[in-house]
Amino acid sequence: MRYLDFDRFRAIIPAEFRATRPYPWTNPQGLLTDAGYQRLLDNMPDVSLFEKKFGYGRIAGQKPHDRYSLEYAPGTPVPEPWQEFIAELCSDDYRTTLAKLFGARKINLRFHWHYTPNGCSVSPHTDSVREHGSQLFYFNREGEWDPAWGGDTLVLDDGGKMEFETAPSLDDFNGEIAARSIGNYSLIFERTRHSWHAVREIRCPEGKMRRVFIVVANPENLYRTVRDKVMRKKVHRF
After folding, report:
1. How many angstroms separate the CA atoms of 196 and 133, rounded?
2. Which end of the chain has the lower number of beta carbons within 10 A, N or C?
3. What are the phi and psi torsion angles at 202 (to 5°)?
4. What's the alpha-carbon Rg for the chain, to the nearest Å?
5. For the chain, which domains are there?
6. How large a percentage of the chain has pLDDT more than 90?
7. What is the dihedral of CA 137, 138, 139, 140, to 10 degrees?
8. Burial (CB count <10 Å: 0-12, 13-18, 19+), residue 236
9. Do residues 158 and 232 touch, judged by C-beta distance below 8 A?
């Protein structure tokens, strides 16, 4: 079975993606095949595998991003369809196509799931400076998730003025665009100093959760770069 519709994915034009404002982003529908999306939906990882991340402080006093989180590593006991899907994402075809969108030569990938229950939100933030960008796959089924409960990722426009090491509220931005998140939708965005995004407080019934799978694209030499910086600091202190 194929999970990713590579023809649709490759149809995203890098120049158009990178020209999008307020920063490079796109919210395509149907990047997963119908059968593949359904199979993944029917085999979501159980929340018992996840770590509770509630109340953790963030940079510059930004409000916590409360949720259940599962970081993927080889051997993580997720259902077989997810192992097959991640194997597709590790292919040269996917990595090369995503790297072109971000204007990168080569990338390393990291995978994780976030499940967000009632009353939780994602405060405005930009992602780590170590990242090229991310691709989010949403897994709330049409007809089972009420749009009034929230869950859309908000693409925020700061007018190019805010420093990423600050803690603005949603009211501080010039505008926002809600990326669709119910059904077979995906969000791809490049990390920049102004790639602010957020999720309003979830208002869903008990037992329901906003579910998203995230692919993070890091520079290929990220870990070597981090190691070298640590060594330089040690030498400097010595």
Report:
1. 12
2. C
3. -75, 135
4. 18
5. 6-237 (2.60.120.620)
6. 89
7. -170
8. exposed
9. no
